[in-house]
Protein backbone atom coordinates (compact mmCIF):
# COMPACT_ATOMS: atom_id res chain seq x y z
CA UNK A 1 0.00 0.00 0.00
CA UNK A 2 2.75 2.42 0.97
CA UNK A 3 4.66 1.55 -2.18
CA UNK A 4 1.65 2.21 -4.39
CA UNK A 5 0.98 5.53 -2.67
CA UNK A 6 4.64 6.46 -3.00
CA UNK A 7 4.62 5.67 -6.70
CA UNK A 8 1.48 7.78 -7.11
CA UNK A 9 3.12 10.74 -5.35
CA UNK A 10 6.32 10.41 -7.34
CA UNK A 11 4.46 10.26 -10.64
CA UNK A 12 2.59 13.43 -9.68
CA UNK A 13 5.95 14.95 -8.77
CA UNK A 14 7.38 14.14 -12.21
CA UNK A 15 4.37 15.72 -13.93
CA UNK A 16 4.77 18.83 -11.77
CA UNK A 17 8.48 19.00 -12.55
CA UNK A 18 7.83 18.82 -16.30
CA UNK A 19 5.23 21.58 -15.96
CA UNK A 20 7.67 23.72 -13.95
CA UNK A 21 10.33 23.51 -16.64
CA UNK A 22 7.86 23.87 -19.50
CA UNK A 23 5.99 27.00 -18.43
CA UNK A 24 7.39 30.38 -19.42
CA UNK A 25 5.47 32.17 -16.68
CA UNK A 26 7.82 32.23 -13.71
CA UNK A 27 4.99 32.96 -11.27
CA UNK A 28 3.35 29.69 -12.31
CA UNK A 29 6.69 27.91 -12.03
CA UNK A 30 7.19 29.16 -8.45
CA UNK A 31 3.68 28.13 -7.41
CA UNK A 32 4.23 24.69 -8.92
CA UNK A 33 7.52 24.48 -7.00
CA UNK A 34 5.47 24.87 -3.82
CA UNK A 35 3.28 21.95 -4.87
CA UNK A 36 6.35 19.89 -5.77
CA UNK A 37 7.81 20.58 -2.32
CA UNK A 38 4.62 19.44 -0.65
CA UNK A 39 4.66 16.22 -2.69
CA UNK A 40 8.29 15.67 -1.75
CA UNK A 41 7.48 16.25 1.91
CA UNK A 42 4.63 13.72 1.77
CA UNK A 43 7.00 11.27 0.17
CA UNK A 44 9.63 11.82 2.88
CA UNK A 45 6.94 11.06 5.42
CA UNK A 46 6.12 7.77 3.68
CA UNK A 47 9.82 6.92 3.75
CA UNK A 48 9.92 7.19 7.58
CA UNK A 49 11.75 10.51 7.54
CA UNK A 50 9.40 12.53 9.74
CA UNK A 51 12.04 15.12 10.66
CA UNK A 52 12.96 15.69 7.04
CA UNK A 53 9.32 15.92 5.96
CA UNK A 54 8.73 18.62 8.55
CA UNK A 55 11.72 20.60 7.31
CA UNK A 56 10.81 20.25 3.64
CA UNK A 57 7.22 21.32 4.25
CA UNK A 58 8.25 24.43 6.18
CA UNK A 59 11.23 25.37 4.02
CA UNK A 60 10.25 24.18 0.55
CA UNK A 61 6.55 24.90 0.46
CA UNK A 62 6.68 27.92 2.78
CA UNK A 63 9.79 30.03 2.83
CA UNK A 64 11.29 29.11 -0.52
CA UNK A 65 8.08 30.12 -2.32
CA UNK A 66 8.05 33.50 -0.57
CA UNK A 67 11.72 34.13 -1.43
CA UNK A 68 11.22 33.25 -5.08
CA UNK A 69 8.16 35.51 -5.23
CA UNK A 70 10.19 38.29 -3.64
CA UNK A 71 12.86 37.86 -6.30
CA UNK A 72 10.20 37.80 -9.04
CA UNK A 73 8.74 41.06 -7.78
CA UNK A 74 12.21 42.62 -8.21
CA UNK A 75 12.92 41.12 -11.64
CA UNK A 76 10.29 39.99 -14.11
CA UNK A 77 7.56 37.44 -14.20
CA UNK A 78 8.03 36.20 -17.74
CA UNK A 79 10.81 34.32 -19.43
CA UNK A 80 11.71 36.30 -22.53
CA UNK A 81 14.32 34.28 -24.36
CA UNK A 82 13.39 31.04 -26.06
CA UNK A 83 15.06 27.88 -24.85
CA UNK A 84 18.53 27.63 -26.31
CA UNK A 85 20.34 24.55 -27.62
CA UNK A 86 17.11 22.65 -27.14
CA UNK A 87 17.99 19.52 -29.12
CA UNK A 88 21.53 19.27 -27.80
CA UNK A 89 20.44 19.73 -24.18
CA UNK A 90 17.71 17.16 -24.62
CA UNK A 91 20.13 14.59 -26.00
CA UNK A 92 22.66 15.21 -23.22
CA UNK A 93 19.99 14.99 -20.53
CA UNK A 94 18.42 11.83 -21.98
CA UNK A 95 21.79 10.10 -22.24
CA UNK A 96 22.67 11.04 -18.67
CA UNK A 97 19.26 9.83 -17.45
CA UNK A 98 19.78 6.51 -19.22
CA UNK A 99 23.22 6.11 -17.63
CA UNK A 100 21.78 6.77 -14.17
CA UNK A 101 18.89 4.37 -14.82
CA UNK A 102 21.35 1.74 -16.02
CA UNK A 103 23.22 2.15 -12.74
CA UNK A 104 20.03 1.55 -10.73
CA UNK A 105 19.95 -2.10 -11.84
CA UNK A 106 22.87 -2.69 -9.49
CA UNK A 107 21.14 -0.95 -6.59
CA UNK A 108 19.63 -2.94 -3.77
CA UNK A 109 15.86 -3.32 -3.91
CA UNK A 110 13.80 -0.55 -2.33
CA UNK A 111 13.39 -1.11 1.41
CA UNK A 112 15.75 -4.06 1.54
CA UNK A 113 17.06 -4.58 5.10
CA UNK A 114 20.32 -6.19 3.81
CA UNK A 115 21.40 -3.20 1.72
CA UNK A 116 24.94 -1.98 2.56
CA UNK A 117 23.47 1.32 3.80
CA UNK A 118 21.51 -0.51 6.45
CA UNK A 119 24.19 -2.93 7.63
CA UNK A 120 27.33 -0.85 7.95
CA UNK A 121 27.29 1.94 10.57
CA UNK A 122 23.57 2.62 10.98
CA UNK A 123 22.89 -0.19 13.51
CA UNK A 124 25.66 1.18 15.72
CA UNK A 125 24.00 4.59 15.93
CA UNK A 126 20.59 3.02 16.56
CA UNK A 127 21.97 0.89 19.42
CA UNK A 128 24.30 3.35 21.07
CA UNK A 129 21.90 6.29 21.09
CA UNK A 130 20.02 4.78 24.01
CA UNK A 131 23.18 3.96 25.91
CA UNK A 132 25.11 7.21 25.44
CA UNK A 133 22.42 9.85 25.05
CA UNK A 134 19.12 8.24 26.03
CA UNK A 135 16.77 10.37 23.99
CA UNK A 136 14.09 8.73 21.86
CA UNK A 137 14.74 10.56 18.58
CA UNK A 138 17.84 9.02 17.00
CA UNK A 139 17.93 11.65 14.25
CA UNK A 140 18.27 14.43 16.82
CA UNK A 141 20.90 12.44 18.70
CA UNK A 142 23.03 11.93 15.59
CA UNK A 143 22.51 15.52 14.45
CA UNK A 144 23.20 17.13 17.79
CA UNK A 145 25.79 14.93 19.38
CA UNK A 146 27.42 12.19 17.28
CA UNK A 147 27.81 14.43 14.24
CA UNK A 148 27.80 17.78 16.03
CA UNK A 149 30.83 19.00 14.03
CA UNK A 150 28.92 18.60 10.76
CA UNK A 151 25.93 20.42 12.16
CA UNK A 152 28.16 23.24 13.38
CA UNK A 153 29.48 23.48 9.83
CA UNK A 154 25.96 23.61 8.40
CA UNK A 155 25.00 26.35 10.84
CA UNK A 156 27.99 28.38 9.68
CA UNK A 157 27.00 27.83 6.05
CA UNK A 158 23.51 29.17 6.81
CA UNK A 159 25.10 32.05 8.74
CA UNK A 160 27.40 32.86 5.80
CA UNK A 161 24.52 32.77 3.33
CA UNK A 162 22.62 35.26 5.48
CA UNK A 163 25.63 37.58 5.60
CA UNK A 164 26.06 37.17 1.84
CA UNK A 165 22.47 38.20 1.11
CA UNK A 166 22.89 41.18 3.42
CA UNK A 167 26.02 42.25 1.52
CA UNK A 168 24.27 41.86 -1.82
CA UNK A 169 20.95 43.47 -1.06
CA UNK A 170 21.11 45.57 2.10
CA UNK A 171 22.85 48.50 0.42
CA UNK A 172 20.77 51.08 -1.38
CA UNK A 173 19.65 50.22 -4.90
CA UNK A 174 21.71 51.64 -7.77
CA UNK A 175 23.89 53.72 -5.45
CA UNK A 176 21.13 56.32 -5.03
CA UNK A 177 19.15 57.12 -1.95
CA UNK A 178 16.59 54.57 -1.00
CA UNK A 179 13.12 55.76 -1.80
CA UNK A 180 10.72 56.38 1.03
CA UNK A 181 8.63 53.33 1.84
CA UNK A 182 5.33 53.89 0.10
CA UNK A 183 2.48 51.63 1.01
CA UNK A 184 4.81 48.92 2.18
CA UNK A 185 3.12 48.73 5.54
CA UNK A 186 -0.27 48.00 4.01
CA UNK A 187 0.31 44.36 3.20
CA UNK A 188 -2.82 42.37 2.59
CA UNK A 189 -4.71 44.20 5.31
CA UNK A 190 -7.58 45.22 3.02
CA UNK A 191 -8.25 41.59 2.22
CA UNK A 192 -10.51 40.36 4.96
CA UNK A 193 -10.23 36.59 4.61
CA UNK A 194 -6.41 36.24 4.54
CA UNK A 195 -6.23 38.69 7.42
CA UNK A 196 -8.70 36.90 9.68
CA UNK A 197 -7.38 33.43 8.86
CA UNK A 198 -3.78 34.60 9.20
CA UNK A 199 -4.38 36.24 12.56
CA UNK A 200 -5.96 33.06 13.82
CA UNK A 201 -3.13 30.91 12.51
CA UNK A 202 -0.03 32.88 13.44
CA UNK A 203 -0.11 32.25 17.22
CA UNK A 204 -0.60 28.54 16.64
CA UNK A 205 2.19 28.38 14.08
CA UNK A 206 4.52 30.10 16.56
CA UNK A 207 3.43 27.76 19.33
CA UNK A 208 3.99 24.78 17.06
CA UNK A 209 7.43 26.14 16.19
CA UNK A 210 8.37 26.32 19.87
CA UNK A 211 6.96 22.84 20.44
CA UNK A 212 9.04 21.47 17.57
CA UNK A 213 12.09 23.24 19.00
CA UNK A 214 11.82 21.91 22.52
CA UNK A 215 10.25 18.56 21.77
CA UNK A 216 12.88 17.66 19.19
CA UNK A 217 14.49 15.11 21.49
CA UNK A 218 11.28 13.13 21.92
CA UNK A 219 9.49 13.46 18.60
CA UNK A 220 10.25 14.72 15.12
CA UNK A 221 11.71 18.19 15.35
CA UNK A 222 14.70 20.27 16.30
CA UNK A 223 16.32 23.58 15.63
CA UNK A 224 16.32 23.50 11.83
CA UNK A 225 12.61 22.71 11.59
CA UNK A 226 11.61 25.08 14.38
CA UNK A 227 13.63 27.90 12.85
CA UNK A 228 11.91 27.43 9.51
CA UNK A 229 8.44 27.25 11.10
CA UNK A 230 8.91 30.33 13.29
CA UNK A 231 10.34 32.24 10.34
CA UNK A 232 7.33 31.17 8.27
CA UNK A 233 4.98 32.53 10.95
CA UNK A 234 6.74 35.90 10.98
CA UNK A 235 6.81 36.00 7.17
CA UNK A 236 3.06 35.36 7.16
CA UNK A 237 2.63 38.23 9.62
CA UNK A 238 4.74 40.48 7.40
CA UNK A 239 2.68 39.55 4.34
CA UNK A 240 -0.57 40.30 6.14
CA UNK A 241 0.30 43.41 8.10
CA UNK A 242 3.10 44.85 6.03
CA UNK A 243 6.83 44.46 6.39
CA UNK A 244 7.26 47.52 8.61
CA UNK A 245 4.95 46.11 11.26
CA UNK A 246 6.93 42.89 11.24
CA UNK A 247 10.15 44.88 11.66
CA UNK A 248 8.58 46.68 14.62
CA UNK A 249 7.80 43.36 16.26
CA UNK A 250 11.26 41.91 15.64
CA UNK A 251 13.68 44.71 14.66
CA UNK A 252 16.62 44.10 12.39
CA UNK A 253 19.18 44.33 15.19
CA UNK A 254 17.37 41.64 17.15
CA UNK A 255 17.52 39.44 14.05
CA UNK A 256 21.23 40.10 13.65
CA UNK A 257 21.65 39.28 17.33
CA UNK A 258 19.77 36.01 16.82
CA UNK A 259 21.95 35.06 13.85
CA UNK A 260 25.25 35.75 15.58
CA UNK A 261 24.01 34.63 19.00
CA UNK A 262 22.88 31.25 17.73
CA UNK A 263 26.19 30.49 16.05
CA UNK A 264 28.04 31.76 19.15
CA UNK A 265 25.91 29.65 21.48
CA UNK A 266 26.69 26.55 19.42
CA UNK A 267 30.41 27.28 19.32
CA UNK A 268 30.29 28.34 22.98
CA UNK A 269 28.93 24.96 24.05
CA UNK A 270 31.88 23.42 22.24
CA UNK A 271 34.36 25.71 23.98
CA UNK A 272 32.65 25.14 27.33
CA UNK A 273 33.03 21.41 26.97
CA UNK A 274 36.73 21.95 26.20
CA UNK A 275 37.08 24.14 29.30
CA UNK A 276 35.53 21.43 31.40
CA UNK A 277 38.08 18.89 30.27
CA UNK A 278 36.40 17.18 27.35
CA UNK A 279 36.88 17.44 23.61
CA UNK A 280 35.27 20.15 21.48
CA UNK A 281 31.51 19.51 21.45
CA UNK A 282 31.86 16.50 23.75
CA UNK A 283 28.88 17.24 25.98
CA UNK A 284 29.45 14.39 28.40
CA UNK A 285 31.50 16.65 30.68
CA UNK A 286 28.80 19.34 30.93
CA UNK A 287 27.02 17.61 33.83
CA UNK A 288 28.02 15.15 36.52
CA UNK A 289 26.20 12.36 34.70
CA UNK A 290 27.54 11.97 31.12
CA UNK A 291 24.10 11.09 29.73
CA UNK A 292 22.55 14.19 31.35
CA UNK A 293 25.44 16.22 29.96
CA UNK A 294 24.71 14.94 26.46
CA UNK A 295 21.05 15.88 26.79
CA UNK A 296 21.90 19.36 28.09
CA UNK A 297 24.36 19.88 25.26
CA UNK A 298 21.82 18.84 22.63
CA UNK A 299 19.17 21.19 24.04
CA UNK A 300 21.66 24.08 24.00
CA UNK A 301 22.97 23.53 20.50
CA UNK A 302 19.46 22.96 19.13
CA UNK A 303 18.51 26.32 20.62
CA UNK A 304 21.53 27.84 18.86
CA UNK A 305 20.55 26.22 15.56
CA UNK A 306 16.97 27.44 15.93
CA UNK A 307 18.08 31.02 16.63
CA UNK A 308 20.46 31.17 13.68
CA UNK A 309 18.03 29.60 11.21
CA UNK A 310 15.13 31.86 12.27
CA UNK A 311 17.36 34.93 12.12
CA UNK A 312 18.93 34.15 8.76
CA UNK A 313 15.67 33.25 7.03
CA UNK A 314 13.99 36.43 8.30
CA UNK A 315 16.97 38.61 7.41
CA UNK A 316 16.92 37.19 3.89
CA UNK A 317 13.16 37.80 3.64
CA UNK A 318 13.48 41.40 4.85
CA UNK A 319 16.42 42.03 2.51
CA UNK A 320 14.27 41.05 -0.49
CA UNK A 321 11.22 42.90 0.80
CA UNK A 322 13.14 46.10 1.55
CA UNK A 323 14.67 46.04 -1.93
CA UNK A 324 11.22 46.07 -3.47
CA UNK A 325 10.26 49.44 -2.04
CA UNK B 1 8.09 -6.47 -7.33
CA UNK B 2 11.43 -6.39 -9.06
CA UNK B 3 10.56 -3.34 -11.15
CA UNK B 4 8.69 -1.68 -8.29
CA UNK B 5 11.82 -2.08 -6.18
CA UNK B 6 13.84 0.20 -8.42
CA UNK B 7 11.08 2.36 -9.91
CA UNK B 8 11.77 4.94 -7.21
CA UNK B 9 15.33 5.34 -8.42
CA UNK B 10 14.17 5.85 -12.01
CA UNK B 11 11.91 8.65 -10.90
CA UNK B 12 14.87 10.35 -9.21
CA UNK B 13 17.03 9.91 -12.30
CA UNK B 14 14.35 11.56 -14.43
CA UNK B 15 13.71 14.31 -11.88
CA UNK B 16 17.46 14.96 -11.63
CA UNK B 17 17.66 15.34 -15.38
CA UNK B 18 14.55 17.54 -15.62
CA UNK B 19 16.27 19.89 -13.21
CA UNK B 20 19.54 19.66 -15.12
CA UNK B 21 17.72 20.41 -18.39
CA UNK B 22 16.37 23.63 -16.89
CA UNK B 23 19.88 24.57 -15.78
CA UNK B 24 21.54 24.07 -19.17
CA UNK B 25 18.77 24.85 -21.67
CA UNK B 26 16.87 27.74 -20.07
CA UNK B 27 18.37 31.20 -20.35
CA UNK B 28 16.36 32.85 -17.61
CA UNK B 29 18.45 32.98 -14.44
CA UNK B 30 15.53 32.43 -12.05
CA UNK B 31 14.47 29.42 -14.10
CA UNK B 32 18.00 28.07 -13.78
CA UNK B 33 17.78 28.40 -10.00
CA UNK B 34 14.41 26.62 -10.02
CA UNK B 35 16.03 23.84 -12.05
CA UNK B 36 18.83 23.66 -9.51
CA UNK B 37 16.26 23.26 -6.72
CA UNK B 38 14.63 20.37 -8.58
CA UNK B 39 18.03 18.77 -9.09
CA UNK B 40 18.70 19.15 -5.40
CA UNK B 41 15.30 17.67 -4.49
CA UNK B 42 16.07 14.57 -6.57
CA UNK B 43 19.29 14.02 -4.62
CA UNK B 44 17.44 14.46 -1.32
CA UNK B 45 14.82 11.91 -2.34
CA UNK B 46 17.49 9.44 -3.42
CA UNK B 47 19.24 9.62 -0.04
CA UNK B 48 16.06 9.27 1.99
CA UNK B 49 14.86 6.37 -0.16
CA UNK B 50 18.11 4.50 0.40
CA UNK B 51 17.58 4.76 4.14
CA UNK B 52 14.10 3.23 4.09
CA UNK B 53 13.74 -0.28 5.50
CA UNK B 54 10.63 -2.24 4.57
CA UNK B 55 8.23 -2.55 7.48
CA UNK B 56 10.34 -0.33 9.74
CA UNK B 57 9.27 2.93 11.31
CA UNK B 58 10.76 6.38 11.80
CA UNK B 59 13.92 6.23 13.97
CA UNK B 60 12.24 7.41 17.17
CA UNK B 61 12.12 5.14 20.21
CA UNK B 62 9.15 4.87 22.51
CA UNK B 63 6.35 4.29 20.03
CA UNK B 64 6.48 0.52 20.16
CA UNK B 65 8.44 0.08 16.94
CA UNK B 66 10.94 -2.77 16.75
CA UNK B 67 12.86 -1.94 13.59
CA UNK B 68 13.88 1.50 12.40
CA UNK B 69 14.80 3.08 9.12
CA UNK B 70 18.32 4.40 8.75
CA UNK B 71 18.67 7.73 10.61
CA UNK B 72 21.94 8.78 8.95
CA UNK B 73 20.65 9.85 5.51
CA UNK B 74 17.87 11.71 7.31
CA UNK B 75 20.37 13.73 9.33
CA UNK B 76 22.35 14.59 6.21
CA UNK B 77 19.32 15.68 4.21
CA UNK B 78 17.66 17.54 7.07
CA UNK B 79 20.56 19.95 7.29
CA UNK B 80 21.05 19.96 3.51
CA UNK B 81 17.51 21.28 2.98
CA UNK B 82 18.10 24.31 5.18
CA UNK B 83 21.52 24.92 3.68
CA UNK B 84 19.92 24.53 0.24
CA UNK B 85 17.38 27.29 0.85
CA UNK B 86 20.11 29.58 2.18
CA UNK B 87 22.27 29.09 -0.90
CA UNK B 88 19.24 29.48 -3.19
CA UNK B 89 18.48 32.77 -1.44
CA UNK B 90 22.07 33.87 -2.05
CA UNK B 91 21.64 32.96 -5.73
CA UNK B 92 18.41 34.95 -5.90
CA UNK B 93 20.20 37.89 -4.30
CA UNK B 94 22.83 37.76 -7.04
CA UNK B 95 20.08 37.58 -9.69
CA UNK B 96 18.40 40.66 -8.23
CA UNK B 97 21.70 42.57 -8.34
CA UNK B 98 22.24 41.44 -11.95
CA UNK B 99 18.76 42.71 -12.84
CA UNK B 100 19.62 46.08 -11.30
CA UNK B 101 22.89 46.38 -13.20
CA UNK B 102 21.90 44.93 -16.58
CA UNK B 103 18.12 45.39 -16.47
CA UNK B 104 17.70 41.82 -17.64
CA UNK B 105 17.84 38.34 -16.19
CA UNK B 106 18.21 36.56 -19.52
CA UNK B 107 21.62 35.03 -20.02
CA UNK B 108 21.85 35.86 -23.74
CA UNK B 109 21.01 39.56 -23.17
CA UNK B 110 23.60 39.80 -20.41
CA UNK B 111 26.31 38.16 -22.49
CA UNK B 112 25.57 40.46 -25.40
CA UNK B 113 25.86 43.51 -23.15
CA UNK B 114 29.16 42.20 -21.79
CA UNK B 115 30.52 41.77 -25.31
CA UNK B 116 29.74 45.33 -26.29
**Total DSSP helices of chain A:** 13
| Major sheet of chain A | none
Please identify the structural class of chain A as seen in this structure: mainly alpha
How much helix, percentage-wise, in residues of chain A?
Answer: over 70%
**Annotation field: number of helices of chain B:** 4
Multimeric organization: heterodimer
Mean pLDDT rating of chain B: 89
Mean pLDDT of chain A: 87
Which protein chains make the most extensive interface, counting residues with beta carbons within 8 Å of the other chain's beta carbons? A-B, 109 and 87 residues
**Secondary-structure class of chain B:** mainly alpha
- Classify the beta-strand content of chain A into a percent band: under 5%
Tell me the radius of gyration of chain A: 22 Å
Query: How much β-strand is present in the residues of chain B?
Result: under 5%
- State the end-to-end distance of chain A: 51 Å
Explain this structure.
The complex is a heterodimer of chains A (325) and B (116). Chain A is mainly alpha-helical. In chain A, 74% of the residues lie in helices and 0% in strands. Chain A contains 13 helices and no strands. In chain A, helix 7 packs across helix 13 (290-323). The longest helix of chain A has 34 residues, at 290-323. The radius of gyration of chain A is 22 Å and the shape is globular. Chain B is mainly α. Chain B has 4 helices and no strands. The chains are: A mainly alpha (325), B mainly alpha (116). At the A-B interface, helix 1, helix 2, helix 3, helix 4 and helix 6 of A face helix 1, helix 2, helix 3 and helix 4 of B.
Amino acid sequence: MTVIFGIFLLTLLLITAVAIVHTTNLFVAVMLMGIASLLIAANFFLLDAADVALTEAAVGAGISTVLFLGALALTSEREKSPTSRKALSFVVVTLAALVVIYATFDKPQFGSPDAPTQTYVAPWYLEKTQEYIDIPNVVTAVLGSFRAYDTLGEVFVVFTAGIGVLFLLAGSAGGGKRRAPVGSDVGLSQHLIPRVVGRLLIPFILLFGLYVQFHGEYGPGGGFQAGAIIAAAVVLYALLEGENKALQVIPQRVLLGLVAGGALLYGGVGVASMMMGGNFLDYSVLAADPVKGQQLGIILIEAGVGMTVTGVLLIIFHAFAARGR
Amino acid sequence: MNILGIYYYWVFAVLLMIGFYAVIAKLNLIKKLIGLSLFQAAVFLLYITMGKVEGASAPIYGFGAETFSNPLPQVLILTAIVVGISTTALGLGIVVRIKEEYDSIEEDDIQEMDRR
